[in-house]
Amino acid sequence: MAGNAVAQAKYIAKRNHIDRMKFQVAELNYLDHFSVRIKLCSATWEASTLVTADDQIFTFGCGSKGELGRGPCSIVDESSCLPLDRAFKPEGATIIDLASGLQHTIMVLSNGEAYGWGNGRKGQLGKPLEIVSEPRKIDTVNFKVKRVVCGREFTYLIGDQDQGQHVVLGSDKYRVRSQAPESAPGWKDIGASWGSIFVLLQSGKLFSWGRNDHGQLAPGSLPRIAKMTVGSEHVLALTVDGKVLAWGWGEHGNCGPDVDKDGDVKSPWSEIKTTDEEGEQAIVGIGAGCATSWLWTDPAE
User: What Rg, from alpha-carbon coordinates, does the chain have?
Assistant: First the structure.
C-alpha cells in the first residue's frame, strides 16, 4: 500500500464471496540491523528482491537459475542475507523501477539503463541467451528506459512518455513481441500478465496484446480508467468514477463471484463492489497477483 495512508484492505479469495483478511507484517529481522526502508519489491516464483530507499539491494529465496543475482547460489534465507554488491551500478544512478517474471528480475536506473539477472534463455535478459547469476546490463535497448514489467518469459521496457519507445524481449509466445505496436506515446502506466501486455494511456484508454484465451485482454468498450493492476492472468481496473472492473481468468474468485462455467470473466467485465456494516466503501487502491486480487479503502472516504 502506498505511503502511510490509513487503509482497509480486502482480499478476493474465494468464489462467490469477498472475505476481509488481516495482513500479517513480514518480520525481516536481519534487515532491521540496516535500518532500511523499502521503496521497491518484486518476486519471481521462488525468490524475492527488495530495494531500500538508499538503493541497497536484498535478495532471498531459491535461486537455482540465478534469481538471487548473487553468483552461483541456490538458497538464501532472509535471516542471513547481505546486500548485493552494487559495483555494477554507475556512480550517481539510482534505482527507479523493479520487476520480476517467473525466473528473472529487471532493474531500471535513473540514467535510463536496465540490468537483469536470472533465467535469460528466452532472451528476456538480452543477449547472450543464458542464465545470468549477477546483474548484467541489457545492451540491446536503444532508448532510455523509464519503466519495466515482466511476463512469464518476457520483459517489457518503455521509455519517454511523450515518444513511447518500447521493446519486448524474450519469448514471442502468444505473439507478445510480434503483435506489439511501433510505440506507445502518452502512456501513464504499464502492466504484464504471464502472457499479455497492458498499456494505460494518460487519456484513460487501456490497450493490450498477447494471450486472450481466458478473456485477459482489455475489452474494447471500457470506460476511462484511472488505475490498473495486472495479475498472472487477470486484470483489475479502477475507473475515473471509482468503479472496480475485473476480467480474465477468475477461477479462484480473483475476478469476483460472476464467472462463466470455465471460471472466466470474458467481455465485457465484472464489477466488484465492497460493502460492510456501514454500507458500500469507496475503493482507493487495487492490486493483483497470482490468482489473487486486493482492494483497499480509505475510512475517511
Answer: 19
